[in-house]
């Protein structure tokens, strides 16, 4: 843990201490010992950026409000974008040295299976059957050919398949694989399994407690993604005042600036244009609010360098795939 993380001030600390209501001193034992490669304990992400027009709004607002961005992600899927749209997004993010992450393939909630519409959600967002996995792979290969460097997945089998494809040289070795919040792990054992299956960053549900984050960090250094403000379909949690402590416990951590009290926009189309652009703009503003809180609490000095995207060394299950270049698989 860095000095600036140690010195971070908690909300209302001085006033409450003066009134005899001070909180216990944070224990160094519950702080994450991990950081991103190249330095820094947190990065930023703007999610739900559903095409070139929304991306342009995000980039304009981030410049206006001085919100640094490491990653921009999209939720509708590769298949909802034309090649020209993907290329435009790749070029625009490339000019700013921002990682672009696109969602892969079919998911259960858009499939014909009735179980996903029951109260239990059945198979949820996972890929149902061989054809759904094949669709995700098709999206991944197409996106990689268009120079997309980060793929977003919502199924363990798809994650393992794409990791094996990466190991074999079918998609570029520097492609990063991000686990969606829609299947996010809720305990350290499952978090570690995702890391071993090939995840380079893992989105956890935003209702995990601070102790849960510490438990995860005792078994895994894989970067964690977390909505500081979650969409309503993921709970609508707003945890801005906890940002400094979330970083202290969960680093290396992507701060995701979602938006509660906003209608869903997946899968995106022009019929949702105004809503999508308005919410894209507001997500950046929410990011500015969270970063302002970090600054006021003296915890804004550990941001990873802009342009950094790789996760560092991680633990993987052995694969049974021989790379196309015949080099020995070091996983």
Q: What does the secondary structure layout of this molecule look like, with pairings?
A:
Elements: H1 3-7, H2 13-18, E1 42-46, H3 52-65, E2 71-73, H4 83-95, E3 99-103, H5 129-145, E4 150-153, H6 156-167, E5 176-179, H7 188-197, E6 201-203, H8 210-217, E7 224-229, H9 243-250, E8 253-257, H10 273-296
Parallel strand pairs: 1-2, 1-8, 2-3, 3-4, 4-5, 5-6, 6-7, 7-8
Helix pairs in contact: 3-10, 5-6, 7-8, 8-9
Order of helices and strands: HHEHEHEHEHEHEHEHEH
Indicate the percent of residues in helices. 25-40%
Structure class: alpha/beta
Largest pleated sheet: 8 strands, parallel, barrel
pLDDT below 50 for ≥5 consecutive residues: which ranges?
Answer: 1-5
> Strand sequence of the main sheet, in spatial order?
1-2-3-4-5-6-7-8
Mean pLDDT: 90
Evaluate the radius of gyration.
20 Å
The shape, in one word, is globular
Care to count the β-strands? Answer: 8
SS field, number of helical segments: 10
Brief write-up:
With 331 residues, the chain is of the alpha/beta class.
Give a structural overview.
The structure is a single chain. This protein is α/β, with parallel strands linked by helices. The protein is 35% helix and 11% strand. The protein is built from ten helices and eight strands. The chain has an eight-stranded parallel barrel with strand order 1-2-3-4-5-6-7-8, surrounded by six helices. α3 (52-65) links the parallel β1 and β2 (71-73). It starts with a helix and ends in a 35-residue tail after the last helix. Mean pLDDT is 90; it is low at 1-5.
